[in-house]
């Protein structure tokens, strides 16, 4: 698998219908934290949305949910967290794919996914996609034929399971740890509960807790093996 990071003029994406009209009247930027599912016709994503001015309460968002869905073309959305200090919402969003995005997905045979870093600002958009090299080549060729100006910022290969940094973790463990970190499960104070996190991973709280503990155990064991902890001064090492 490879990733490619591209830069676009946001106005060009708005003209294609990727960004809703007048989106930046209310918001400063939107950042993709994770694509949870990408299917034909729709996608499920975790987003960070920075608002201009103060945040609305969860109750206000609930009352206006129908208007919000209609305005931004959402099938559904869920407020995961409010961050008043930074004026951010963390949202779980189910949204129809615009025709231009769906065309690229179809071209790649479904083997392409938007991934972080993916940040849409008022002037520029940084978009990252992950796919097999051949599929990415097809997508880039199509973008050039569409005469959509873009700049390639970076290309890279995805780490393999042989990578020492992830050798002992399964793919699902790495994905779950990354999601828990992004949503603030390891923050102090914790920003999301295990129960709430379990809803976003499709696992029961006990099963999720066991998976996280097993992953944490592997990481701690690896750290201790690499960095032995010295005994405190004045203590013996014998039992």
Short key terms for the protein model shown above:
2 domains; 35% helix; globular; disordered C terminus
Poorly predicted ranges (pLDDT <50, ≥5 residues)?
159-167, 235-239
Give the DSSP E fraction (strand runs of 2 or more residues).
Answer: 25-35%
The oligomeric status of these chains comes to single chain
Write down the secondary-structure element order.
Answer: EHEEHHEEHEEHEHHH
* CA radius of gyration: 21 Å
The number of distinct helices, counting runs of at least 4 residues, comes to: 8
What is the CA–CA distance across the termini? Answer: 50 Å
Strand count = 8
**Largest sheet strand order:** 4-5-3-2-6-7-1-8
What percent of the residues sit in helical stretches (DSSP H or I)? 25-40%
Q: Summarize model confidence as the mean pLDDT.
A: 84
Instruction: Please tell me the total number of domains.
Output: 2
Main beta-sheet annotation: 8 strands, antiparallel
Instruction: Please identify the structural class as seen in this structure.
Output: alpha+beta
What global shape is seen? globular
Summarize the structure.
This protein has 239 residues and is an alpha+beta fold.
Fold and architecture overview:
There is one protein chain. By secondary structure, the chain is an alpha+beta fold. It has two domains: 2-157, no CATH class; 171-226. It has helices at residues 10-15, 58-63, 65-72, 99-107, 133-145, 171-182, 194-201, 205-226, and strands at 2-9, 27-39, 42-51, 74-83, 88-96, 112-121, 124-131, 150-157. It has an eight-stranded antiparallel beta sheet with strand order 4-5-3-2-6-7-1-8. The radius of gyration is 21 Å and the shape is globular.
């Amino acid at each position: 698998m490879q990733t490619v990071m591209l830069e676009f003029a946001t106005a060009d994406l708005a003209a294609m219908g990727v960004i809703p009209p007048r989106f930046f009247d209310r918001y400063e930027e939107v950042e993709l934290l994770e694509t949870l599912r990408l299917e034909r016709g729709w996608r499920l994503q975790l987003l960070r949305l920075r608002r201009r001015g103060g945040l609305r309460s969860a109750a206000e968002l609930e009352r206006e949910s129908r208007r919000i869905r209609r305005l931004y073309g959402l099938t559904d959305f869920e407020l995961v967290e409010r961050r008043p200090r930074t004026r951010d919402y963390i949202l779980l969003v189910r949204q129809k794919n615009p025709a231009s995005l769906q065309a690229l997905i179809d071209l790649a045979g479904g083997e392409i996914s938007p991934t972080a870093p993916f940040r849409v600002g008022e002037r520029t958009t940084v978009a990252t996609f992950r796919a097999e090299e051949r599929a990415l080549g097809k997508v880039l060729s199509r973008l050039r034929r569409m005469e959509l100006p873009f700049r390639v910022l970076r290309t890279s290969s995805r780490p393999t399971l042989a990578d020492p940094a992830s050798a002992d973790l399964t793919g699902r463990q790495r994905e779950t740890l990354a999601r828990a970190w992004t949503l603030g499960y390891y923050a102090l104070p914790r920003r999301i509960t295990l129960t709430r996190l379990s809803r976003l991973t499709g696992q029961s709280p006990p099963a999720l807790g066991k998976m996280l503990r097993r992953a944490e155990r592997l990481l701690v064991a690896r750290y201790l093996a690499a960095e032995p902890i010295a005994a405190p001064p004045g203590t013996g090492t014998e039992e």
